[in-house]
Design goal:
By secondary structure, the chain is of the alpha+beta class. It is 24% helix and 39% strand. It has an 8-stranded antiparallel beta barrel.
């Protein structure tokens, strides 16, 4: 039987930061003024993290994830981040898939089980070639995430490009966050003194973790 090559949707060392953004309306206005345009409209993103019973991936700060973004599904592995107090930089391998249930069964047969689900409404912005004269702007993707625990931005690109875009949008390195959404969710639960579960919107709260 001839072998079939897998099409890796993304293979790189990603570098990113998160920034809390309570005022989305003002931020989106700043984005437009800085020459960014919407390249992927707002869509629900549903994420399912897999791990071993001993949480081996979590202990290494790695990640194995099934993600539904709009009508597409992706299988993603992220390696252990490099030591850095300001940026999260690590290997990312991502594959677009067509059969999420079958992939989930394969992962479980290999010893990885669903452990956490988190959701957000995500929009993607990129620099408009007609408006942005800055090369750093052109190399940074700006993700706008509306989550059950608040609004966040993710800036992805090189460190210097992230810094320049952040300054243009009114932020500084002191605003950067490298925590995962799982960690931010746990912090929010502790602050509100509520039990932790899955970071999902209310209408999904009673659905099973394996809702894929």
């Amino acid at each position: 039987m001839p072998s079939a090559a897998l099409h890796i949707h993304r293979r790189n060392h990603e570098t990113e930061v998160k920034i809390s953004c309570p005022d989305l309306r003002k931020f989106k206005r700043n984005l437009r003024e800085a020459g960014f345009r919407l390249t992927h409209p707002r869509a629900l993103e549903d994420n399912f993290l897999f791990d071993t019973p001993n949480r081996d991936l979590r202990l290494k700060r790695s990640l194995l994830r099934l993600r539904r973004y709009g009508s597409q599904w992706f299988l993603t592995f992220k390696g252990t981040p490099a030591p850095d107090p300001h940026y999260k930089s690590r290997l990312e391998l991502e594959l677009e898939i067509q059969q999420p249930r079958e992939i989930a069964l394969i992962l479980q047969a290999l010893g990885f089980h669903p452990v956490f689900r988190y959701q957000k409404f995500r929009s993607l912005y990129a620099a408009s070639h007609s408006k942005s004269k800055s090369k750093p702007h052109a190399s940074v993707e700006v993700f706008v995430d509306e989550t059950p625990i608040g609004n966040y931005l993710e800036l992805e690109g090189s460190r210097s490009s992230i810094d320049q875009v952040a300054r243009t949008l009114g932020f500084s390195k002191q605003d950067y966050l490298t925590a995962s959404y799982g960690a931010l969710y746990l912090e929010d639960c502790i602050k509100k003194k509520i039990p932790a579960g899955n970071m999902v919107f209310p209408r999904f709260s009673k659905r099973p973790l394996t809702d894929f």
